């Protein structure tokens, strides 16, 4: 095979909207411009449902690299947990059932530990609220 291809990942470098705040567009990049004019290239979508995140959620390096390496959409844990909260399948999660059942049967508390923010890629406040709802269902 005589044709070669190169996959080049430049974290933090993107094709923007060419506005006044688009630093890459507004900076002299002669070698980059040469590459873009001379060689075939394409643009990838690296956010939202294209990389297994909720629609409109910006991606990050980790998410982008996982999807490029897989060659398909890799649904992120955030999406999987969102779905399980929405369809209530989280109520059948063995670890959830075990923790809440143990606490109820033994008069114990349940302590939540983890990321709680609206950051989006690694955490969601909705997950905490769902755990609080589950605790209420167990009368804990």
TrEMBL record:
Q: Which residues form the signal peptide?
A: none
- Indicate the segments forming the BPG-independent PGAM N-terminal domain, all copies: 81-139
Q: Which reaction does it catalyse?
A: (2R)-2-phosphoglycerate = (2R)-3-phosphoglycerate
Q: What is this protein called?
A: 2,3-bisphosphoglycerate-independent phosphoglycerate mutase
What cellular component GO annotations does this protein have?
A: cytosol
Q: Which GO terms describe its biological process?
A: glucose catabolic process
Looking up PANTHER family in the UniProt record yields:
2,3-BISPHOSPHOGLYCERATE-INDEPENDENT PHOSPHOGLYCERATE MUTASE
InterPro entries for the chain: Alkaline_phosphatase_core_sf (IPR017850), BPG-indep_PGM_N (IPR011258), Pgm_bpd_ind (IPR005995)
Q: One GO molecular function term?
A: manganese ion binding
């Amino acid at each position: 095979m005589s044709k070669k291809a190169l996959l080049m990942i430049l974290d933090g470098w993107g094709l923007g909207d060419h506005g006044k705040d688009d630093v890459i567009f507004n900076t002299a990049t002669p070698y980059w411009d040469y590459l873009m004019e001379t060689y075939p290239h394409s643009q990838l979508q690296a956010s939202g449902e294209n990389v297994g995140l909720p629609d409109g959620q910006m991606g990050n390096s980790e998410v982008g690299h996982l999807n490029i390496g897989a060659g398909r959409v890799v649904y992120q844990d955030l999406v999987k947990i969102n779905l399980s909260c929405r369809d209530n399948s989280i109520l059948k999660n063995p670890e959830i059932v075990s923790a809440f059942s143990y606490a109820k049967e033994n008069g114990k508390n349940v302590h939540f530990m983890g990321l709680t923010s609206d950051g989006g890629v690694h955490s969601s406040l909705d997950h905490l609220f769902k755990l609080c709802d589950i605790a209420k269902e167990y009368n804990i």
